[in-house]
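Hi support team,

I've been running sequence recovery on a batch of backbones for a student project. Most finish fine, but this one hangs at about 90% for roughly twenty minutes before it completes. I'm not sure whether the input is malformed or the queue is just slow. I've pasted the structure tokens below so you can try to reproduce it. Let me know if you need the job ID as well.

Thanks,
M.K.
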């Protein structure tokens, strides 16, 4: 089996255009208020971002993950990896290209699971960039890594469902025009059964959908809401993907979404390595620059090797998605490894910068705060390790070798 991640001339041109747009248009436009709080005014901030979105559309750099009939660039996941990595050189890049979480994953979900009517009502405005969405699955009372334990219930009442429950860490809930909500609908199956949950499309705001607070995290209040749901009524026509398919729908959504996170994280890791090397070349101490110190060289070398592995894992997992092959193990491996590598590379970059790295005079401190979330989002490290181990053991039991569970590569 040939493995070739060489981009076509057309894809290389897309990469060049994205890089140019990010470096020469987005970054200069937002440099004076990279954080929303630093904007001269919220109105100016919003105007700037919306203008950049219109320029991205005009440049043909809109919706890289969506097919052309939905106004997208129609890229496969391998080509998408290089677009996401280039866009993530700035925090706002993926949003301006309309390929950010959670909307990106929700678009994939609606495209695959939605009826024609649901696509027009919910997917169309997401693709056009006129609305935003959220995905409401995680709950504080049960392990977020096990959606079969969800306690939020939906009970049929005529042609409506009455929903009650408690959600939290619902990203973008306060900006969302609708939610994809996962609730337990099947009471005749045991807890832990994968057919107990159903997905619903919930128009927001709605009576019974109570946004209690934005959860304060180690990197601040950044849009992760706690929601209390009380007698929320949802039309039966808003069931997404069929009754009892909530778990399947969620897993379908999370696979590519996990890899898209990795595509963005690898860009952050590369930025940190660039900064580490630049600091090492310019900081003089004890008779030479840091780049001449063996201890610093080891940190640079370890980071470069990890970044190389991250890129290969992302590209290989993306290629399996593009080919329609089972990608679950490879995406789990990539998600775990890239998230941990990002934390390690950033930590080394801070160390090489010394007190400067610990300060907020460089972006490293904020990047490090955000990076810790990577090891929890879309499945904690330990859950991915458990699933990987289960698949490795199953492969050996079925075939007498672990080969298929280590990438199925031709060596």
């Amino acid at each position: 089996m040939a493995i070739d991640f060489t981009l076509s001339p057309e894809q290389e041109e897309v990469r060049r255009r994205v890089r140019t747009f990010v470096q020469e248009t987005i970054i200069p436009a937002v440099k004076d208020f990279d954080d929303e709080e630093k904007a001269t005014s919220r109105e100016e901030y919003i105007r700037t971002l919306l203008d950049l979105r219109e320029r991205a559309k005009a440049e043909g750099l809109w919706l890289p993950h969506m097919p052309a009939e939905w106004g997208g660039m129609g890229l496969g996941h391998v080509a998408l990896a290089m677009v996401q990595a280039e866009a993530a050189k700035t925090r706002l890049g993926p949003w301006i290209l309309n390929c950010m979480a959670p909307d990106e994953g929700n678009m994939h979900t609606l495209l695959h699971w939605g009826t024609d009517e649901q696509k027009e009502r919910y997917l169309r405005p997401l693709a056009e960039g006129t609305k935003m969405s959220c995905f409401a699955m995680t709950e504080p009372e049960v392990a977020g890594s096990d959606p079969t334990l969800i306690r939020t219930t939906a009970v049929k009442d005529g042609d409506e469902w009455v929903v009650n429950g408690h959600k939290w860490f619902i990203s973008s809930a306060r900006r969302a025009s609708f939610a994809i909500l996962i609730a337990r609908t099947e009471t005749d199956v045991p807890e832990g059964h994968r057919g107990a949950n159903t997905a619903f499309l919930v128009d927001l705001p709605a009576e019974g959908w109570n946004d209690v607070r934005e959860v304060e995290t180690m990197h601040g209040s950044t849009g992760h809401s706690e929601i209390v749901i009380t007698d929320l009524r949802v039309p039966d026509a808003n069931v997404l993907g069929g009754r009892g398919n909530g778990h399947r729908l969620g897993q379908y959504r999370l696979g590519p979404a996990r890899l898209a996170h990795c595509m963005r994280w690898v860009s952050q890791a590369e930025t940190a390595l660039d900064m580490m090397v630049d600091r090492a070349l310019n900081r003089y101490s004890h008779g030479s620059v840091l780049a001449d110190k063996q201890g610093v060289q080891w940190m640079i070398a370890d980071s470069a090797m990890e970044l190389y592995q991250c890129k290969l894992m992302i590209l290989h997992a993306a290629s399996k998605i593009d080919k329609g092959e089972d990608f679950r193990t490879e995406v789990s491996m990539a998600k775990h490894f890239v998230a941990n590598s990002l934390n390690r590379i950033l930590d080394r970059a801070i160390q090489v910068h010394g007190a400067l790295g610990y300060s907020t005079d460089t972006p490293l401190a904020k990047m490090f705060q955000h990076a810790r979330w990577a090891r929890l989002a879309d499945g904690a490290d330990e859950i991915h390790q458990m699933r990987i181990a289960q698949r490795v053991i199953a492969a050996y039991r079925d075939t007498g070798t672990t080969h298929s569970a280590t990438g199925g590569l031709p060596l």
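--
Follow-up from support: It reproduced on our side and the slowdown came from queue contention, not your input. The chain has three domains: 9-100, 133-240, 248-406. No action needed from you.
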